[in-house]
């Protein structure tokens, strides 16, 4: 694929999976275009040495440190996207020093907001996919790539998910997610295309599509489903994305007392340092809870 096509796919992923807004996508597009102007033989296939030479040249061009950091970050995320989608077998930015920046806490939703979102689902399928994004903490790429054989058999309370790098993990499913998934499987035939050629592709997937070329629901379509449900539930759609539901899953587990190693396993994180961010989210929310609900905390001074 050309750089242009891969850039477009990457930006679509940022929008669908992470809820990136238009200004963020525009900035990333400019960053990648800058790389293409200076990496003459193509960004997607560039070697580590070529990428490092490009990064070394950022400072010499008089760019501000903030702009340079953002361009490095854009490249890092782009190459990780290519690695995850098996377009490349390596990450040419792996030897670069990580851009120094403050820790940002992930966006999340309250339990009441998640319940309202699920309740606002327009179809059985929509309810099932929201239940899986939240109830199992799936990445949207994992959700749309679930084959039909991944559906739990009667008596099973788990699924086997193929995550990043082709690594499999077991995810446990609670009662609501199992019930929603069973309802979806029972009515799934209606979502299959009528034309035989399209139907053959679509019937492989747990969440088939009527129109997508590969027969499965797209990341963007999942994001649209969430936006519709959020608006119906009275939640600002800009606060809701597949990745936010994954964050809510992890945050609520930590708030409920789950240990980090368990959460790490459920999320499929290779490094527990990635999971530790949820302790900061939980600490902030628990502090607010104590300050607003504990009788002594509310006791007036003097």
The helix/strand order is HHHHHHHEEHHHHHHH
Shape: globular
> Separation of termini?
70 Å
Structural category: mainly alpha
> How much beta, percentage-wise?
under 5%
Organism: Candidatus Viadribacter manganicus
Family: Belongs to the 'phage' integrase family. XerC subfamily.
GO molecular function: DNA binding; tyrosine-based site-specific recombinase activity
Protein name: Tyrosine recombinase XerC
Description of the structure:
It is a single chain. The protein has 302 residues and is mainly alpha-helical. The protein has two domains: 3-84, DNA polymerase, domain 1 (Orthogonal Bundle), CATH 1.10.150; 111-288, Orthogonal Bundle (hpI Integrase, Chain A), CATH 1.10.443. It has 14 helices and two strands, in the order H-H-H-H-H-H-H-E-E-H-H-H-H-H-H-H. It has helices at residues 3-18, 22-38, 48-60, 65-84, 111-119, 124-135, 140-144, 175-187, 196-202, 219-233, 242-255, 260-267, 272-275, 277-293, and strands spanning 158-162, 168-172. A two-stranded antiparallel ribbon has the order 1-2. Helix 2 packs across helix 4 (65-84), helix 5 (111-119) runs antiparallel to helix 6 and helix 6 packs across helix 11 (242-255). The protein is globular. The mean pLDDT is 84. The active site is at residues 139, 164, 243, 246, 269, 278. This is Tyrosine recombinase XerC. One of its GO terms (biological process) is cell division.
What is the structure about, briefly put?
It comes from Candidatus Viadribacter manganicus. The chain has 302 residues and is mainly alpha-helical.
